[in-house]
Prior knowledge:
This protein is of the alpha+beta class and 457 residues long. It has two domains: 4-151, CATH 2.40.50.100; 236-456, Chloramphenicol acetyltransferase-like domain (Chloramphenicol Acetyltransferase, 2-Layer Sandwich). It contains eight helices and 23 strands. Strands 15, 18, 19, 20, 21, 22 and 23 form a seven-stranded mixed β-sheet that branches.
Amino acid sequence: xxxxxxxxxxxxxxxxxxxxxxxxxxxxxxxxxxxxxxxxxxxxxxxxxxxxxxxxxxxxxxxxxxxxxxxxxxxxxxxxxxxxxxxxxxxxxxxxxxxxxxxxxxxxxxxxxxxxxxxxxxxxxxxxxxxxxxxxxxxxxxxxxxxxxxxxxxxxxxxxxxxxxxxxxxxxxxxxxxxxxxxxxxxxxxxxxxxxxxxxxxxxxxxxxxxxxxxxxxxxxxxxxxxxxxxxxxxxxxxxxxxxxxxxxxxxxxxxxxxxxxxxxxxxxxxxxxxxxxxxxxxxxxxxxxxxxxxxxxxxxxxxxxxxxxxxxxxxxxxxxxxxxxxxxxxxxxxxxxxxxxxxxxxxxxxxxxxxxxxxxxxxxxxxxxxxxxxxxxxxxxxxxxxxxxxxxxxxxxxxxxxxxxxxxxxxxxxxxxxxxxxxxxxxxxxxxxxxxxxxxxxxxxxxxxxxxxxxx
Length: 457
């Protein structure tokens, strides 16, 4: 007999609580195999493809593209035994441990009752739980709910399944054609009450919602023209806004500025671009700035530290995971160059170029945007001189690199045209004192003004 399983939205990155469904790669009636990509979702920072944990036939897509769902909410129903005899959901934990056959494949039960849920993500507990928030108990949701087939009805039409309860509410019950109609007409299924059997939303419910005039709010001005458009706050924009608010109202920010003559750096860059070992390497001013930040952090380790309020400690890092703020079509993301302090100038240049390419394509993995130690934001690429950057949560310093311009500058008592750049450093005054912040910014400026100083570090 059929075995219906519902696949809940998994936690694809540490701390994920919700994601938006971007694109389904399957439809009801399709046959799927284990590890087949079935859907693309957008988390707070990246687009992620999810594989199917079971083989079988897709019976229903529970969430429409464009909808945001919480972790643990079922998103698809799959018949894992179409037209066949009932089969066990997974091998018994004891048997798996006894014969040592657990391999961590999608849908396979691991020793101790753990079930692998994602390729490259590792085994996950058999009972999925939404990540706990502060002062809030974490509600539990089944990792693989087996839905019993509907009982035969006296009429030809099968009985509709009961609503699926989820951490954020229930998934609206509607057949795929009705879901498509609602999407085309811009109707939110979550706002409707179904008039069909067991609360199923019908085509008439959707059409009635369109026909009903919306009551204007007495407190708002209604513009019937097309001079406004409203975009839901979700995905990258929602995550960025929350992170910036948390940072601005948690860490006391201080910003200092420095104007630097970077003519020697630009001359060195021109020489290195013609060197055989740098041939084919995209050597940008950002690479020099990154190297300067890493070297300066050795003399002022406070800028690479973290304030741990829970433990009442300052955590000093003996490594540099350098964050680079990148503007992408999905919004601002900050991927990290891991262990940047171990890289040469050439290795940094290559890593920065690869990082920017992946970020622009929206393919940066969520794990690659976590656990940074210090960040650079290159506002100069937009022709901006400088700004007052806001710290990334968990970090103590961020440096803004401004545009490099030809400007008059006093050299040996004479005015000459030089390559001038402005730097801005924001730091957490709980961790970094004014003297330490000033020393770090001065060191970065000195390394850019005279790269040969790096020989003394």
